[in-house]
Amino acid sequence: MIDEGRFLSLFLKHERELASIARAFLPDWNAVDDVLQEASLVMWRKIHQLESDDEFLPWSKVILRFEILKARRLHARQKWVLNEELISKLMDESAEDDAEMRHAQQSAIQHCLQSFSEDHQKLLLAPHTSRGGVLALAETGSHSANSLYKRIGRLRVKLHDCVVQRLSSAELDLPI
Amino acid sequence: MNKQPIHDLIEKYFLEELNETEQAELRLALEAQRSYRDRFRRAAEIDAQLRHCWNEDIGDDEGSRPLLQSEPNSLAREPLATASHQRIDVRWLPVTVAASLIAVAGVLYSGILKPTPQPTIAQSNSAQPTAPQSVGDEATTRDSSEVAWLVTGYNHRFNDGLAPQNNSFERGDYELTDGSITLRFDSGVDVSIEAPARFTVVNSLRMKMDAGRARAIVPETGHGFVIQTPTADVEDLGTEFGVYVSEEQDVELHVFAGEVNVHTANLPSRRIQEDTAVHLTSMGTKHLSATDDVAFTTRSKIGYQRWLADSTARREDPSTLLYFDFEPDPDAPTTLRDRSQSGLAIDGQIQGCIWATGRWPNKGALLLERAGDRVELDLPGTFDALTISGWIQVNRFDQALQAFFNTRDWQPGEHHWNIQRNGGMSVGVSRAYTIHSAQKKVPLGRWTHLVASIDAQKREATYYIDGEFAQQKQWENATSIVFGPCTIGAFGSTLEAPAETATEEEANAAESSLRVEAVHYNRELRGRLDELALFAGALSAEQVKELYEAGNGFD
């Protein structure tokens, strides 16, 4: 049986994957942080349900799914881009990805990010900085925030394409 | 739909820049196409990783750019991938354990849907000599005047003029001169008949036997089904029974399960109980010593005969490179015999496993249940085109991947065949292609036919489940298919382990030549296997269908 002592390392191990799932269905990272915090509390309370480490990820995804849906109900007035049916579909399809594929994807993202120039890396990361990185960049440079967001969007598409290309060549070498 | 704008919309979603119209457009796109949803999920993962890349603890200097893993870490920061672990820290760690338990409604991800059998169109064979012959288990296009249809047959032949059209039985007389058949009435009743037999299809709840043997299996929908004989009518009350009418018009009734009513002119009806055999005469009934189960065929028996004939033909076919029928060799119980006549004699070595029953009661199989259960074999040569065909019954999905038939390791040109936890497939040839798909799934607890038809010259691979198309992939690299050491039932990966030495120092100092190869097995399969074959050449969809139908006549 898994105890609370094991919880932290399991949660840290899978935190990025859980965060990416929550981000897909919630409007911003603040909402994601809130939901992950709630979900982590529930997981902490129920960790004794698990028999082995392998069970953690599918189990934590179920809890996260409930917390996401709960958060959406709490903010029912907000207009959500994705409906619950679509969320279920995306969740189910996400469950088809195996650990090897996910690991390959994370490596590919790392690799591709490093292939961008310094300026472009800074732009790509700007929306995630704590104090309005894009606005700050706009204030210090000659571009408006709007045009910077457009450039970031294009860079993100390029980053995505790089990841897909790398995965398609890398997956040929993965044992399946 | 042009993909580029949708990709832009996906990125705008994660940049929180979508307006309402764009939101609706994105929603519709995601609902419509799996490829967009895959891209959306990947974009979420990239977004999460980008966020991790910014170490907020050192991000006070907003103008500074983040350090990436490949760069010198002059500021002794944590590597990119782990930097943000500080962000989660104790903020998310509960300090008290609440006692309230909310029921979590189960892990639902791996729900398995049993696919509905896809009906097929049966082919006409009247008055044609019939080699081991297969017909579809169901008919797709059925005539409104059709009362019953042929679901299976073995070496069957009808008399000219007294034959069904396109395996469809309308009201009328029929004469089966050779072989055996099973026909299914609209009411759901299956009647298996052996030649020689003359019979009349009357309606969906009645037939008449003039001569021959017929066995009826009657589901609830067919209660009241009647087989009319020269001396009495036999009415089903929810049962399985056999009727034999000799050329001399002697009639026997054998009730194998349930009860039947016998109606004879001028006599009151009599109820005949289970496990009873009687002579039916116009004067009444006369008990026989016992029912004779063997004397009346069933759909399953016909299916076994058909498979056996097909199996014999396959193993003698020079294009069959490898053929495991999973029948034990009494002299070598841990050897899986290659029954093909190819001369290669690539016997498998059974590790663990239990000999068990296959698709039919008298068909062998291997049950893989315990850790390490597998069959090892070594398959030499290179192939430009080949087909792998197997019958499998999966009992449980214990792991993310269960190996069906994989090479050891994953060298260029080697084929792997795994079943995902949800019944989907993870298959491919190293350096050529991979397929991860759950569009068509292997069901739990049901014998299932799997085929891979790979043409390395055309660079095209097609996969089938139960004779139906499942996936296809085309690839760029030129490669031939190879196997070498491989396993049925578990994936073996080679680990280089130091030879056993007295101390760690000695192990470290050991030359590479002293190192020994160890094979680690995982992705174990939990279920049964009862046939595996490799054929030279990539079989067509029609040939795969025939292969499936040849082995599909089981209950």
TrEMBL record, chain A:
Positions of the RNA polymerase sigma-70 region domain: 10-77
InterPro entries reported for this sequence: RNA_pol_sigma-70-like, RNA_pol_sigma70_ECF_RHOBA, RNA_pol_sigma70_r2, RNA_pol_sigma_r2
GO biological process, one term: DNA-templated transcription initiation
Highest taxon, organism lineage: Bacteria
UniProtKB keywords: Sigma factor, Transcription, Transcription regulation
One GO MF term attached to the UniProt entry: sigma factor activity
Entries under PANTHER family matching the protein: RNA POLYMERASE ECF-TYPE SIGMA FACTO, RNA POLYMERASE SIGMA FACTOR
Protein name stated in the entry: Transcriptional control
Species: Rhodopirellula islandica
Organism phylogeny: Bacteria, Pseudomonadati, Planctomycetota, Planctomycetia, Pirellulales
Automatic annotation (TrEMBL), chain B:
Residues in FecR protein domain copies: 178-261
Keyword tRNA-binding: no
Record keywords, A-Z: Membrane, Transmembrane
Region Disordered: start-end pairs: 120-142
Taxonomy, superkingdom: Bacteria
GO MF, one example: sigma factor antagonist activity
Alphabetical list of SUPFAM superfamilies matching this protein: Concanavalin A-like lectins/glucanases
UniProt xrefs under InterPro entries: ConA-like_dom_sf, FecR, Ferrdict_sens_TM
Start-end of Polar residues biased regions: 120-133
Entry protein name: Transmembrane protein
Source species: Rhodopirellula islandica
Top-level taxonomy: Bacteria, Pseudomonadati, Planctomycetota, Planctomycetia, Pirellulales
